[in-house]
Specification:
Layout lengths: L1 H53 L6 E5 L10 E5 L7 H7 L5 E6 L9 H7 L3 E3 L4 H18 L2 E4 L17 H9 L4 E8 L17 E6 L3 E2 L5 H14 L2
Parallel strand pairs: 1-7, 2-5, 2-6, 3-4, 3-5
Antiparallel strand pairs: 6-7, 6-8
Helix pairs in contact: 1-2, 1-3, 4-5
């Protein structure tokens, strides 16, 4: 019965969802031309706030739990597990103060209103997973930018989304490259739970009443660990919190 009820509610939800993505692509274009990067970023922040309000139509919501204070005036590397596309709005909104930038696969740079435009024009990094050597060089250049601007980066090192919520083994290449450049940075582990349920029926219908829990943990200074030990430690922290 609950799944049957979800169909008409999903139709209403997707009407609002589609409108927001279409409208905010125009907002981003205008913001970037008139106000530059910061104006475009703010438009993306508010888009993701409204996307969080939009899931309330499904009886769903996201809870963000900040485990401890983050260091100031240094780059931050937010490392998270990845369960669905609905991981992204709470990360963008609740971490907006830290100017987060994503490392994403190149395929997401086209075809999705608002999302693709932001990934192409919002100083994020799109990489071709079939070009390992070229991707490493791009990550190095990207890390230098993050260090220079004192921004933050969000990375999902599992590589692909977990369809059942069970965590996958981290891929280390991208993280090790970031650590090599961002030696003064701090890593903030993040665990996301229940987001996978949005995709339980391939996003239609989205089940009703999902509670997404996003938790951050104590920051770890990159220079205090070897690269592999830091990855192993962060992986254990994240997996234990799911």
């Amino acid at each position: 019965m609950k799944k049957i009820l979800a169909y008409p509610v999903n139709v209403i939800y997707y009407l609002f969802f589609g409108f927001l993505l279409t409208f905010f692509e125009l907002v981003q274009i205008i913001s970037l031309k008139i106000g530059g990067h910061m104006a475009q970023k703010k438009s993306v922040d508010y888009l993701n706030y409204l996307l969080l309000r939009c899931i309330n139509l499904l009886g769903s919501f996201a809870v963000f739990h900040k485990g401890s204070k983050f260091p100031e005036n240094v780059p931050l590397i937010f490392i998270s597990n990845h369960q669905s596309t609905y991981d992204v709005p709470p990360l963008i909104w609740y971490l907006r103060k830290y100017h987060p930038k994503f490392i994403s696969k190149i395929e997401l740079g086209k075809g999705i209103p608002s999302i693709s435009y932001n990934l192409r024009n919002g100083k994020h990094l799109l990489i071709d997973r079939n070009d390992s050597e070229g991707s490493i060089k791009k990550i190095e250049d990207f890390a230098h930018l993050i260090d220079e601007k004192c921004w933050s980066v969000i990375i999902f090192p599992e590589g692909t989304r977990s369809k059942d919520g069970k965590p996958k083994k981290f891929r280390k290449g991208g993280l090790l490259t970031l650590f090599k450049i961002l030696k003064r940075a701090y890593v903030v582990p993040i665990s996301i739970s229940n987001s996978w349920k949005f995709a339980k029926y391939r996003y239609f219908p989205i089940p009703l009443g999902i509670k997404v829990l996003v938790k951050t943990y104590k920051p770890l200074k990159v220079s205090d660990f070897s690269g592999n030990k830091l990855i192993d430690k962060v992986e254990k922290i994240i997996h234990s919190g799911i």
